[in-house]
Amino acid sequence: MTAGRARRAYARVMIVPMVMSAAMWLVVAALVARQYWPAFLLVIVPVLAIAASTPVGERCQAVFMWARAPRLHQRHTLGPVAQVLLEHGVESAHLTLLVGPSRGIAVTAVGRRIIVVSRGLIEDVRLGHLSTGAAAAVVAHEVGVMRAGLTRSDPAIRVLLAPWKVWLTFIALMWAVASALIPRWLMLTCLLMNAGAGIWLGATQDPAMFVSTACWAVVLWTWWTFRSWSRARHRIGDHYLVQTGLARVYAQLLVKSFTDDYTRDRAVRLQHPEMQGEQVVVPGEAPRANPALSTTAR
């Protein structure tokens, strides 16, 4: 998996959200700005998107993610993790580390400069549930994605896709309520019957009936593009782990945490990169990075 293929996957995943967001931005502009809606769409929204890509804009997005500067005890816990990253040549110049509220093990890149580490990851390292090597591998995976340029436009994209995010949150809430009341297999059966009825009525009665089937085709396309993008992102991060010599410890973490076939295949590729034609890096021979990982949020 190359960065070019990952960017193409990213471009595909943006098609439906961009189209829907453009339509919803048009409605918002007509309601808010009224006769000035062209200026709202052509000036205000692009300016906000450009501003979001600046260092201040990235920091503002981190604030919206409830991320903050690490406290003293968190910096103390992350010190050995930063040392492992340094020893494996993970470049961390100009990166700022923030702490998010999630209780799970998660690391998120924001734009080109900010890495948000979950509170749960820090606590697991402190309690000894997660080794410093495994924590460093999780951080390095996201750094690899960032270094490939795949998160560079995320802040601007989040602004442009704000209506899509709101709509998607509403649909997710409706789906959660329906899932609590109706068995999932029954919901999926009804959806398939709806799509099949649309095809039959469109072919025998009125071609307009194809609309429902077309909508479900768009939903399936969107789901496929999101899955393809997620897997392309994984491959880029995995490749960076192989380059830095942290692949095996990350593979062990995946095997310990997940049981699905896709993740197990990832673990095998990480443990045996020579099967994919990757260059194996010996940890002791990895190049050293000069700057340490910034945990001061400055």
Automatic annotation (TrEMBL):
Transmembrane segments: 12-33, 39-57, 166-187, 207-226
Keywords: Membrane, Transmembrane, Transmembrane helix
Keyword Transmembrane recorded: yes
Name this protein carries in UniProt: Zn-dependent protease with chaperone function
Species whose genome carries this gene: Ornithinimicrobium cryptoxanthini
Lineage of the species this protein comes from: Bacteria, Bacillati, Actinomycetota, Actinomycetes, Micrococcales
